[in-house]
């Protein structure tokens, strides 16, 4: 198993990414290797200075970086020696089994769609994230940013992608699917949700339980919650603020602690031909470690083949 990591992606790279890689390496089994993609001289020097064995990792030299403000498509094509471009090239060629980066989200999406490509039958891939539940565990929310505008027929596909991920990565049996909306009634919503509701209801591939209001996101009404990427991203950013706000107000709470993005590492892009995970731009070593471990779980679960079979 070869887990690809962009060591130049993120606000605190390469220190945070390399420190996270070292933390994750201690939790991997024999035969599981992290492939560090970026400036290999800096990587080897850092690992030696940290008192670790550089031979435990593999290295792919990619000295260029795609900045957060760069145009994704132009950067991917014009910077073939960037860490993200090389990562996707390796993933496409089978040199690595997964690829994770806390770098430019747009470049990660472009690389996913144009390099490893969308699974046949999937209209558009979606980015998924975890949503803590008040009692225990968490649900899956998607899309949270890949598609700001969606066609109605995309939402049942998101429901299926999320259901497969919930079942095979997190062991949630027969996951329920809800449509994020402004009311419980079937006739509530905007043009997208009104058109998507009957499609979700008619699908025999998912266990649809109806509309989910914002106040129900954190209870047990649905395991998988679907929406367009615009709504999903607003919900994601709001949810992320809960942990920060509790810290600023000076109190600790076990439930709100689970909104700390570091625990989950990153967000998978579902619906493409290989495991790809996007990390938060401000990813800490702990977040990088968990992003690598999520990559490992996605490879071990064979989730990509299970999605391919479902859309065949």
TrEMBL record:
Cellular component GO terms, alphabetical: cytoplasm
Gene Ontology MF, one: phosphate:acyl-[acyl carrier protein] acyltransferase activity
Compartment(s) of residence: Cytoplasm
Keywords: Acyltransferase, Cytoplasm, Lipid biosynthesis, Lipid metabolism, Phospholipid biosynthesis, Phospholipid metabolism, Transferase
BP GO annotations: fatty acid biosynthetic process; phospholipid biosynthetic process
Membrane-spanning ranges: none
Record-listed E.C. numbers: 2.3.1.274
Pathway: Lipid metabolism; phospholipid metabolism
Reactions catalysed, as given in the entry: a fatty acyl-[ACP] + phosphate = an acyl phosphate + holo-[ACP]
Signal peptide: none
Matches recorded under SUPFAM superfamilies: Isocitrate/Isopropylmalate dehydrogenase-like (SSF53659)
One Pfam family this sequence matches: FA_synthesis
InterPro entries: FA_synthesis (IPR003664), Phospholipid_synth_PlsX-like (IPR012281)
Main function: Catalyzes the reversible formation of acyl-phosphate (acyl-PO(4)) from acyl-[acyl-carrier-protein] (acyl-ACP). This enzyme utilizes acyl-ACP as fatty acyl donor, but not acyl-CoA.
Membership in a protein family: Belongs to the PlsX family.
PANTHER family recorded: FATTY ACID/PHOSPHOLIPID SYNTHESIS PROTEIN PLSX (PTHR30100), PHOSPHATE ACYLTRANSFERASE (PTHR30100:SF1)
Subunit structure: Homodimer. Probably interacts with PlsY.
Protein name: Phosphate acyltransferase
Name of the gene encoding the protein in the UniProt record: plsX
